[in-house]
Design goal:
7% helix, mainly beta, 5-stranded antiparallel sheet, 15 helices, 88 strands, 26% strand
Length: 1233
């Protein structure tokens, strides 16, 4: 205990520890936060002053910058109103009188604010005194979209965190880990088993029995193995009271309290003679309703229909469905955990339809409520037919609230609805009897759902004579035109059996339910006449009678029920094929005019290398037939001889294959076998859809499909001589695995003979996959590679194709680029690869410690690469925090890079690339093996002096002998051009004070050697100067700086190299700067009008497009046609067509294309007319050209002093190469070869 300052209190305060605070008990309340004081705590020692202050509250700052709320500071305020709106955003409790508050509405208890602040600071020592229990900080960002995974246990989407099981290839929610394997639900009479997927052919209807929405068979669900009913996991487990977990799954028999004892079965397996526990006599199954006219079922009191049980000794009837209901039953619409019990001969009011009855019912012994059999059967899950409804069936929706089409009641919760129209029925109306007998008509009245009579006078009830709504259901007899309201016909007691006896504890005698039709005595209870249904004492002399509705002490108890809805099980049949063995024997002539002999291997040796099969035109091999006549060189392979004219092939089931006869050695190239890819030189099998097979290929693949390997030579190991042969199934080298060597030179790995013709695979759980031959070059859904000439597994309904090899990938893969192994995880929904950021299907590899999912191909992505697209090394990362990078657009495709997934990025300049963009061309990058080794950079400059800003202001360039100084005053160097790119200088630039040499800063900083993405050679380009070259990009002739490929002897000028360096570029007069270069775009250039140009600079916001040449045009040029500088112009404001002419060539020009223009003189010229062919040549520069013995210099000849070209003899009127040696008159055009 120590003394402290008073923190604003008038008396000194003492610091109390836990032991001292116990003395004050629960009466010690902090005077700031008004919560119970907790140690350490300050207390006032003055007698009678009951002041306590928690140390946390005492030392709380008036303003707090909280890391969990960085946008605004939190201010400590006092509010003694105790308003309910002042609730702490951390713990949810009332803030009391003192709390931290933010202008945006955030509120914190003082303790909650300090507690979370210390968490953020990792200051756990300061939390020792905090007494908050089990705090939880919300981590979900409400604006963030759900993570891209579907739980394989429940089939719903999940956010961010998933649990995976490698061996089972599943991703699930944490809560779904503990899902019960087997449950017993009130929604179904049998046990339900949880499964992670269903093959569609193994189940019937795939709609959930509860919500009636489709169940995705590729994800988890609960299903019944007996009747194939299926449920969404979340639907059947939503209410914990509606199911119990089956602990003993191996228990063979489910408890089922059957109401019937079967005495006799018919041949179809139906119980035709039974005993029901509610009746004393045997009951026989019948279907002749006409023999039992106007009879009702004693279970539900609805008219009997096919089929029913009847008693031959008394008037007792039961519908088959009513008779088969169990003695005890769980129902979904009754919340009591105990099952309902089947009862009879008890008066009750149904809790579902509110109708009185004394027929069969289900009773809850716990809550003493009853449900009639009509409602129990109606509410049994499944589809139901409905009176006159064309869109049968109707389904019951538990949560739907609406208006009943039959009775007009509104706001009813839980209704029968149609998926196709707006019809809705409540439970009571759905169970109405179709026909009834009433005293208002001698005939049966039929339940009707519409009134065709449009006259309002006919819309009256013939019983109560009141008007009725023609849009509601009513009872009607057409011939007598009798119509009556439903409630008038049925009344309150239509479902009570006449003559049934009741025991009433208030009465000394039992009473009988009767209907008075002629004699109406007064009720013994209320004194009113008994006009219809009454209870009467049957004892002679006792005249007791009363209305059925008058209270007599009976209790009406409702019950709930459910009955079993059976669905048919669709069976999956497997086709079995048996191979047949052939024998070697003498054969018929197979259409040949002479007899044929069957040759074996030994007898064929002398004929093998100079004899050909007459059908397939291939070299003969054993077994083969040979003509027995001397001199007749007719040979026929046995397999070709026995080939059927029509073949139904398992690998091409849609159409039969027909044997086509063709002339041998017709190698036109139009007919190639879709299996082996070789020319079909002789007869072959052909399909109308274009598929072609060699005879041997067709028979070989047929044997594969039938697993008929009897004619094959036994397995042998590969040796050196077979290393170039390929397996005809997987197309890998034969020598890689043990293999079969088949008749005729066909090879097949032993492992490849084990592929099934049809298989179920976890990568596609909807349908089985069938082995097929890919004749159309379709892509494998897993590896996305063309599978031409390969076998693959296909799902025809879904249009999916899989390589056989891809369906059996490695379970675990380790790679040196990643510290942990990757485990295979089959996915049923698309996922986003965390390595490359693109979507993937079916097969993913997961790394548990790193929480990433990747494609198989992305496991081996290099960590560091050196790409032609960038001057620095690029490092692969699985995610980037946005604050660590600049623009998040890919440098290559200019589309956004998702920072939450993998990318390549430069740590020096923050450029970022899509993984697939930068690794698309394997020749465009190299893998950096030694990551610690420093990068090599061949700098062109040697810095002699730096300024304070770190800029190199005096440098030496390797192409120039003098030092160069950095400058930005363009006006002092007017009309000067950069000697590197020959474009006008601009700020900033280097210049030589001794000679006329200028270099743009960007040109000077280019390295000596450089990789560029637009040159395919693996070698880097070398910076050169003073060579007369033609640029491969813009086709301009120049002798300025250029990059040269020493391997292919091609040059690229500096203008194109700089323009094509990845990044955004500004453009002349373009309001939507910048422009970006799109490598794959093909279009029309807005500068020169050339069409179909591939690779262009484009604007994201408008349609402007420029090719490389136009993009690099000089902004201003000097020409003899005008004394002023001409400016490059992208539009002509003059609408007069007379002005649309070039002032140099005097030809018309397109006003929509770029041109050079002088505003003062109104001079306009074509771009090509101004620039010519030699505008990018430095005048006065000296080069050695061709075979001339002296150096040549570039000159510009005046028109009035022409000289004639020594090569072509024509006048040199403009740019020319002239010999520098005095006395040598050699001159030539600059472009003469």
């Amino acid at each position: 205990m120590e003394e402290s300052n008073n923190y604003g209190h008038r008396h000194p305060l003492l610091l109390l520890n836990e032991n001292r605070l116990i003395i004050y008990g629960s009466d010690a309340v902090c005077n700031r936060c008004w919560n119970r004081a907790s140690a350490p705590c300050f207390s006032c020692p003055e007698e009678g002053c009951w002041f306590f202050l928690d140390k946390v509250c005492a030392e709380a700052p008036l303003e707090l910058s909280h890391p969990f709320h960085p946008h605004h500071p939190l201010l400590l305020i006092e509010d003694r109103s105790w308003s309910e709106s002042n609730r702490c955003n951390y713990c949810g409790q009332n803030c009391g009188s003192l709390f931290y508050h933010c202008s945006c509405g955030l509120k914190f208890h003082v303790k909650c604010a300090v507690f979370t602040f210390n968490i953020a600071q990792n200051n756990f020592k300061e939390l020792e005194h905090v007494t908050l229990v089990d705090p939880s900080i919300p981590t979900k960002n409400e604006d963030e979209e759900p993570g891209p995974f579907i739980c394989d246990a429940c089939g719903t989407s999940g956010n961010h965190a998933a649990y995976s099981c490698g061996p089972c290839d599943i991703l699930i929610h944490k809560k779904c880990i503990s899902l019960s394997r087997v449950i017993k639900s009130k929604w179904h009479d049998h046990r339900l088993s949880h499964t992670y997927f269903f093959y569609r052919e193994y189940v019937g209807n795939l709609d959930c029995i509860i919500c009636h929405q489709e169940v995705n068979a590729e994800h988890g669900s609960y299903a019944c193995s007996k009747c194939n009913d299926i449920f969404h996991v979340n639907c059947v487990t939503k209410d914990e009271a509606s199911y119990v977990i089956v602990e003993n799954e191996d228990e063979e028999k489910e408890e089922y309290a059957n109401s019937l004892i079967v005495l006799e079965w018919n041949d179809a397996g139906e119980a035709i003679l039974v005993e029901h526990f509610k009746h004393d006599h045997p009951l026989r199954l019948g279907d002749r309703v006409s023999e039992h006219e106007n009879k009702c079922c004693d279970g539900c009191l609805l008219p009997i229909s096919v089929s029913f049980y009847s008693c031959s000794q008394c008037e007792f009837y039961l519908h088959k469905v009513c008779a088969e209901l169990p003695k005890v039953k769980h129902v979904w619409h009754h919340r009591c955990p105990q099952p309902l019990v089947l009862t009879s001969n008890e008066g009750f009011e149904c809790v579902k339809c509110d109708l009185f009855s004394n027929a069969f019912s289900y009773k809850c012994e716990k809550c003493d409520k009853y449900t009639c059999l009509r409602c129990v059967i109606a509410l049994t899950p499944g589809a139901r037919t409905c009176l006159g409804h064309k869109h049968n069936p109707l389904l019951f929706y538990t949560d739907y609230k609406g208006k009943c089409n039959a009775c007009g009641k509104d706001d009813i919760e839980g209704m029968f609805r149609c998926k196709d129209c707006d019809i809705c029925l409540d439970v009571k109306c759905f169970s109405l009897p179709i026909t009834v007998q009433d005293k208002c008509d001698e005939h049966l009245l039929l339940l009707t759902d519409h009134d065709d009579n449009n006259y309002s006078e006919s819309h009256f009830c013939d019983i109560c004579e009141e008007s009725r709504d023609p849009n509601l259901w009513f009872y009607h007899y057409e011939h007598c035109d009798t119509s009556a309201d439903v409630k008038c016909v049925l009344g309150e007691y239509s479902f009570i059996k006449i003559g049934s006896i009741f025991e009433v504890k208030e009465l000394e005698h039992p009473v009988t339910f009767v209907r008075k039709t002629y004699y109406y005595p007064n009720c013994s209870e209320c004194g009113e006449p008994c006009l219809d249904f009454v209870l009467e004492c049957p004892k002679p002399g006792c005249n007791y009678i009363h209305h059925a509705s008058c209270p007599i002490g009976t209790s009406a108890v409702p019950v709930l029920c459910q009955h079993l809805n059976q669905l048919s099980l669709s069976l999956f049949c497997h086709l079995q094929r048996d191979g047949e063995e052939g024998e070697m024997e003498e054969s018929n002539n197979y259409g040949h005019q002479h007899p044929l002999l069957l040759l074996n291997e030994n007898s064929l040796i002398r004929d093998r290398f100079h004899s050909w099969c007459e059908r397939c035109c291939k070299m003969i091999s054993a077994p083969s037939f040979r003509c027995a006549e001397e001199g007749c060189r007719f040979y026929l392979h046995k397999v070709c001889a026995e080939a059927p004219l029509e073949l139904t092939h398992p690998f091409h089931p849609p159409h039969p294959l027909l044997l086509m006869e063709r002339e041998c050695f017709d190698f036109s190239g139009n007919h190639r076998c879709n299996y082996c890819g070789q020319l079909c030189g002789g007869s072959f099998y052909h399909c109308s859809c274009g598929l072609k097979f060699h005879i041997r290929c067709a028979v070989f693949t047929l044997n594969i499909a039938q697993n008929n390997f009897n004619p094959f030579i036994p397995t042998k190991d590969g040796d050196e001589e077979d290393k170039y042969d390929e397996c005809f199934r997987c197309w890998e080298p034969l020598a890689k695995y043990p293999y079969f060597f088949l008749d005729g030179g066909f090879g097949l790995h032993k492992k490849c003979t084990e592929f099934p013709l049809k298989m179920n695979h976890r990568c596609h759980r909807k349908h089985p996959l069938t082995l097929q031959l890919n004749s159309q070059g379709l892509l494998c859904a897993l590896c996305q590679i063309d599978s031409t000439k390969r076998f693959f597994y296909s799902c025809s309904p879904c249009g999916l194709f899989f390589h056989a090899k891809c369906l059996s990938p490695s379970r675990t893969i380790e790679d040196k680029t990643h510290p942990h192994p990757f485990t295979l995880l089959w996915r049923q929904v698309p996922f986003i690869c965390d390595a490359c950021g693109t979507s993937g299907c079916h097969a993913a590899y997961s790394c548990g410690p790193c929480d990433i999912l990747v494609h198989e191909k992305c496991i081996s992505l290099p960590r560091v690469i050196k790409s032609k697209w960038h001057d620095h090394r690029l490092s692969h990362t699985y995610f980037l925090h946005r604050e660590y990078v600049g623009i998040l657009d890919c440098i290559i495709c200019h589309k956004e890079v998702n920072a939450e997934h993998g990318s390549y990025a430069c740590s020096k300049c923050n450029d970022i690339f899509h993984v697939n963009c930068v690794t698309k061309d394997e020749a465009s990058y190299v893998i950096v093996e030694n990551e610690d080794e420093e990068e090599e950079y061949a700098n062109s400059l040697i810095v002699l002096e730096w300024n304070d800003a770190g800029e190199a202001i005096v440098v030496e360039h390797f192409t120039h002998d003098h030092p160069l100084r950095l400058h930005d005053r363009v006006s002092e160097h007017e009309n000067k051009c950069c000697d590197g790119c020959l474009l006008p200088i601009s700020s900033s630039f280097y210049y030589c004070s001794r000679c006329e040499f200028h270099l743009h800063k960007v040109c000077a900083e280019l390295p000596k050697v450089k990789h560029v993405w637009h040159h395919d050679c693996p070698r880097p380009l070398v910076l050169t100067s003073n060579e007369l070259v033609q640029c491969v990009k813009c086709d301009c002739v120049s002798n300025a700086f250029s990059y040269k490929c020493k391997r292919c002897d091609e040059y690229t000028c500096l203008r194109c190299v700089i323009a094509l360096t990845p990044g955004a570029r500004t453009c002349l007069g373009h309001k939507h700067n910048p422009l970006l270069f799109y490598t794959d775009y093909k279009g029309k250039c807005s500068g020169c009008g050339k069409d179909d140009v591939e690779g262009m600079f484009r604007c994201k916001d408008c349609d402007v497009c420029l090719d490389v040449k136009c993009f690099s045009l000089p902004i201003t040029v000097q020409d003899k046609c005008d004394e002023h500088l001409l400016s490059l112009t992208d539009h002509d404001d003059n609408n007069y067509s007379e002005s649309h002419f070039c002032d140099i060539c005097e030809e018309s020009r397109d006003p929509n294309l770029w041109f050079y223009h002088c505003v003062r003189c109104d001079t306009s010229t074509h771009v090509d007319c101004v620039l010519g062919e030699c505008s990018f040549i430095v005048l006065g520069s000296i080069i050695q050209v061709g075979k001339h013995e002296h150096p040549l210099t570039f000159v510009k000849r005046a028109y009035h002093h022409p000289k004639y070209c020594s090569k072509c003899g024509k006048p040199c009127l403009d740019f020319a190469l002239e010999c520098t040696k005095p006395g040598c008159n050699y001159i030539r055009h600059a472009l003469c070869p």
